[in-house]
Every structure is written in structure tokens, then in C-alpha cells.
Design goal:
Number of helices: 10
Number of strands: 10
Strand order of the largest sheet: 1-2-3-4-5-6-7-10
Bound molecules: magnesium ion
Distance between the termini: 14 Å
CATH topology: TIM Barrel
CATH superfamily: Divalent-metal-dependent TIM barrel enzymes
Order of helices and strands: EHEHEHHEHEHEHHEEEHEH
CATH architecture: Alpha-Beta Barrel
Radius of gyration: 18 Å
Structural class: alpha/beta
CATH class: Alpha Beta
């Protein structure tokens, strides 16, 4: 397979990605797909969808799960609402993630991913053991489907993430590295983090952000890839260093402004193609 094929984060009927048609117009060969709503996660829809992708010449590399009731409004809201950490919604969301894994299998996709939520840093916190258990359960379901599970980075420091991966102790658990999230959440300098967690990186988001005045207490600001504090060239050089050759998937979460979203992703594609020619 070609090194570093470009990709975009795409959506069918749920999530903040671009429409498939837009991915095609942008000319990318791969996508990360936000899992569609339950009603769309059927064998019939999977077949129709695969036929469409084949016609457009697009391959799905990872299917991402997301849940009703999640909000990224601010950091405390993320803690309360996102992923498999909040106890009240955990069982229902685990069931839904397993269904998403089954749907990804129908699509022939070997990796599913999610934001697991804020894992407590203190391993003696009972919540920590509960989150370890739920992620193990999900890993084992994915394993039966022949899949890896990728945790989206952001909420944890690189050391916290390594600790958590070690605690879960499953050989199909990996990372989707999103450098902008490290900045948005204030969880550490992303380039240093990639070097630490490099052996677990199996997919990436090309997304950019600027640090908040008080990182970790307030949000940083997401900006077009190449215009923030990640450092696009350094990011690719570091991916090269760790031996990552998979898709470079651009994520730009402004679906309320589709024309701007497409224009900015187009610019990111030109930037990445230039850097690929230079580094790749
Ligand atoms: Mg991301």
C-alpha cells in the first residue's frame, strides 16, 4: 500500500465529518467513517454503502463510534458526558459500540475507534478499574470480529495513556493519535507525546489547534490544519520517525459551514501533499 494515503473524516448521517460526495470531490482515497445511526447500521445499508465507496474509489480505514448525549461544550462537560466513563450510560454505550464493531465488520473494516472519555488518573479510584473492565470487554468483542480498537487521544497525557493501555492489557488495543486534542485539552506537547506512545499509533488525525491561555482549564481553539501550534512538518517528520505509514486523515469539525470546511480541507490536502513530497 502507498505510504501515507490521504484521508478525511466522513459522515453518512451522524457525526461531524464531510459527506462522501465531498470526500470524493476532494480526491482522497481513504476515510475515517463516523458510524451512522442505529437504523442505518444494517446489512443492506452496508452493502449499498460499500457499492457506493467502490464506485468512488474510497476505502474506509477506521470506523468511529460516538453516542447520543455527548457534548464537547467545555472540559467539565466532556468529563460528564463523553465516552464509556460516565456510569449512567456505560452499559448502553458498550452495547452500542459492540453493534458498531459488528457494522464495521459488515463493511470489512479492521479497526474501530472512540473517545473513551476522561479516565481517572488515580489507578486506586474505583472508576479506573471500571473503565479498564469496560474497555477490556469491548476489546474482546472487537477481537472476535478480527478488529483492533483505537483510543482517540486527547484527554490523557502520554504517560497517563501508556499507563491505561498497560492496565487494560489487550493486544488489539491501539491509539488514534490526534495532535490537536492534546493542545485543546491541555494534556501535553503533542510531538513529545507521539514519541512516547509511538508503538501504539495505528491511525492519526491531521487536525490543528492553538493553546488556551490556561491549558487544561479552558479549551484551546481548533484551527485549520497547518495554522495552529501542532507544527505540520514536525508532526509528519515525527510520524516518519516512529515508522507510521498509514493514512493521514484530515479532521475539521465545522459541519455547520460546509463550504468553508471543504475549502480548508482542500488547503490541508495541498499542504500534506507538499510535505509528503519533501519527507515521505
Ligand atoms: Mg480526532
Amino acid at each position: 500500500m502507498e505510504k501515507w494515503p490521504l484521508g478525511v473524516f466522513a459522515s453518512i448521517d451522524a457525526g461531524l465529518g464531510v459527506r462522501l460526495e465531498v470526500a470524493h470531490e476532494l480526491g482522497v482515497p481513504t476515510i475515517h467513517l463516523h458510524a451512522p445511526h442505529k437504523a442505518t447500521r444494517t446489512k443492506q445499508h452496508a452493502e449499498q454503502f460499500l457499492a457506493k465507496l467502490k464506485k468512488l474509489g474510497i476505502r474506509i480505514s477506521v470506523v468511529f463510534g460516538g453516542f447520543e448525549g455527548e457534548s464537547y461544550a467545555d472540559i467539565p462537560t466532556v468529563t460528564r458526558t463523553v465516552g464509556l466513563v460516565p456510569p449512567a450510560t456505560r452499559a448502553a454505550r458498550l452495547k452500542e459500540m459492540k453493534e458498531i464493531s459488528d457494522f464495521a465488520k459488515l463493511l470489512g473494516v479492521g479497526a474501530v475507534a472512540l473517545h473513551v472519555g476522561f479516565v481517572p488518573h488515580d489507578a486506586s479510584d474505583p472508576l479506573h478499574a471500571e473503565v479498564v473492565a469496560v474497555v477490556r470487554d469491548l476489546c474482546d468483542h472487537c477481537k472476535d470480529n478480527g478488529q483492533n480498537l483505537h483510543l482517540e487521544t486527547g484527554q490523557e497525557t502520554a504517560d497517563g495513556l501508556l499507563q491505561f493501555l498497560t492496565a487494560v492489557d489487550r493486544d488489539n488495543l491501539f491509539i488514534n493519535f490526534d495532535p490537536a486534542n492534546m493542545i485543546l485539552y491541555g494534556s501535553g506537547e503533542p510531538i513529545q507525546a507521539i514519541r512516547k506512545v509511538g508503538r501504539y499509533v495505528r491511525s492519526v488525525h491531521c487536525k490543528d489547534a492553538k493553546w488556551a491561555a490556561k491549558p487544561g482549564h479552558e479549551w484551546g481553539a481548533e484551527v485549520p490544519f497547518g495554522e495552529g501550534d501542532v507544527g505540520a512538518e514536525n508532526f509528519l517528520r515525527t510520524l516518519n520517525e516512529i515508522g507510521y505509514t498509514g493514512p493521514l486523515t484530515i479532521e475539521r469539525e465545522i459541519p455547520q459551514e460546509p463550504s468553508r470546511q471543504k475549502e480548508e480541507i482542500g488547503r490541508a490536502i495541498r499542504l500534506l501533499n507538499g510535505l509528503k513530497a519533501k519527507i515521505g
